């Protein structure tokens, strides 16, 4: 399953970790570089440093 998680706080990180362990395709979107870096360095997921705007969601709605 493909999953996009918005936010890499405690819940987002834990969810990304669990889904990654279950071999799901996970993308974590985070606006804070430090949090994004922690996820990128510790989990087998893709991360994006993004300030979310409507254009982003329109461009990725079929992902």
UniProtKB/TrEMBL annotation:
Residue span(s) of domain RCK N-terminal: 3-43
Protein's organism: Sporolituus thermophilus DSM 23256
UniProt xrefs under SUPFAM superfamilies: NAD(P)-binding Rossmann-fold domains
A single GO BP: potassium ion transport
Protein name: TrkA-N domain-containing protein
InterPro entries: NAD(P)-bd_dom_sf (IPR036291), RCK_N (IPR003148)
Taxonomy, superkingdom: Bacteria
